[in-house]
């Protein structure tokens, strides 16, 4: 009963935040589908190798799978990890938008979530750099790897995003301290 009233209150007092939350939910669901499909088809490709010709949206790693299975496993693991980190990043955003209260925006929980988003964004950027390096190494060794810009692009953007959000997390942390001091003095 209390949760329903809380949701009604959020929709009435903070419609903009709830609209953003709905958009973020749709992106999160899409990223979960991408990560799940990539994981499922990758596992299925061990039993039926022909599946590796179209792992997800035309990603063809059939040549690598046939030539060297362990490099295939490593590359696919990196791609799945990147997809999962991106989905988790949006999950954390959903949690922030469901937690934040515009009347008292500085809360310890929101501050921790913002710090975690910064950490995940930086990890995603570093993992993309690692994957790009691995791809270049495999191509240099003569393996037939298709262009994977859609899967390995945006490393710099994620690193920059992580640094920016880390700065915002520090501001939020200080805001929590000031807000708690003000509540104690009143």
Automatic annotation (TrEMBL):
Output the InterPro entries linked to this UniProt entry. Answer: DUF2975 (IPR021354)
Name the UniProt key words of this record, in alphabetical order: Membrane, Transmembrane, Transmembrane helix
Q: Which Pfam families match?
A: DUF2975
Give the stretches traversing the membrane: 20-47, 69-89, 110-130, 150-169
Name of the featured protein: DUF2975 family protein
